[in-house]
Amino acid sequence: MLHTIKPDEHGPLGAPMAHAVEACVHCGFCLAACPTYQEFGQEMDSPRGRIVLMKQVLEGTLPWSAAQPHVDRCLGCLACEPACPSGVPYRDLISPFRAAAQEKFPRTFGEKLRRWLAAQSIPYPGRFRLALWGARLGKIFRPFVPRVLEPMLDLAPATVPPAVKLARVTPAHGERRARVALLAGCAQQVLDPDINVATIEVLARNGVEVIVPEAQGCCGGLAWHTGDLRAAREFARRNLDAFPADVDAILTNAAGCGSALHEYHLILCGTADEARAESFRQRVVDVSVFLARLGLRETPRGDGARKVAYHDACHLANAQGVREQPRKLLRAIPGAELCELPDAHLCCGSAGTYNLDQPETAASLGAQKAKTVIATGATVVASGNIGCLTQLKAHLEKLGSPVRVRHTMQVLRDAYGRE
Question: Which of 19, 70, 153, 351 could make a disulfide contact with 75, Cβ separation 3.0–4.6 Å?
Fold first, then answer.
């Protein structure tokens, strides 16, 4: 008997999932690009294998429990998409499938607790800051902490930077060339608030007025990538209402957030806000792309010759196709030597909450990436995503490396010199 996916059985997200499955011809080009296939060497832990598993589940010929462990191992890095000659939109399958699995796949109490704690803290800067202080206390009383929560303790940084209050409007220096709205992010505001400070300063120096909407919230990416469609939609609608229409662009400086905003049409698929989400996503641009298009009005002075390694954040390079623009900006710094990382397509292992859900795999990938950075001889490694930066910093420190970890905008700001 021939089985096919019936999109109507899986709600509004059924059609995109069915299309993604049908586009795959099982050629295997994705295998070499997939970090989890490199880690486990199993067909079921490759994009091609997962597509087969998800197809069978959606057709009703395989139980959810047989597929979900392998789907959980997927980083969602989307390295398979640029490697695919058939153009399979894997992103249209993996997150919607996880949303469908939310009610179908039973999880242990420990898994539910960890996911609930992450969902209730990370998207809210105030709560997240308190949670990190709580984690420091948890480390002291570690023997009494449930084992399932230990990854949270391991990931908590030793110190948390002071909170930074961003101005609602930062005027352009000199003649105004553009006016933009900036997504401030959630975890980034706590883990490294200086990234937003640097971003705003670089934009202002180059004639850009920056608005930081007060009513904005989390992009919804963490919820979307873990299958919490209800929460993802709530965050998306909040941002649709918060961002003004009278700006030249909506800018992001975190690859994961930018990728999530670009998927608002999918998150809100089949709802009354779908058209509004489509219009919104068309205005979203990574800050490196915006600056590269606009051109640097003020040339960085540079702070002496140094070697900078650039790490492609997966949701910038793969999800948004942004590779050359950050490199162009870094090359504009006098005296800076830009170098490439070996196996640059392989994920660093951060991937949202992947460090919490799959700590062993995340640690293996993080250590590998840190070693490739060290091998370049670079003094600085730059990237465009807070998750990657946090992961790189943690594993470089574990290896005793002095390599500094900086956002692309921080490297540019430092080259201009602090005002």
Answer: 351
Contact 320, 255 (CB under 8 A): yes
The answer to whether residue 1 is domain-embedded is: no
Q: What is the mean pLDDT of each run of 10 residues along the chain (419 residues)?
A: 63 90 95 96 96 94 93 96 96 94 88 92 95 90 86 87 96 97 96 98 97 97 94 98 97 97 96 97 98 93 80 97 97 93 94 90 96 96 96 96 97 85
Beta carbons within 8 Å of 346's beta carbon, 6+ residues apart: 35, 38, 79, 365, 368, 369
Asked which of 292, 326, 354 is the last residue of a domain, the reply is 292
- Which residue type is seen at 31? L
Q: Are residues 351 and 321 in the same domain?
A: yes
What pLDDT, on the 0 to 100 scale, is given for residue 41? 94
Is position 161 within any domain? no
- CA dist 373 and 392 (Å) reads 9
Q: Report pLDDT for 2.
A: 47
Residue-range definition of the domain harbouring residue 149: 109-155
Query: Are 1 and 60 a contacting pair, CB within 8 Å?
Result: no
Residue 57, domain member (yes or no): yes
Q: Return left, alpha or beta for 212; rule: phi > 0 is left, psi -120 to 50 is alpha, else beta.
A: beta
210 shares a domain with 258: yes
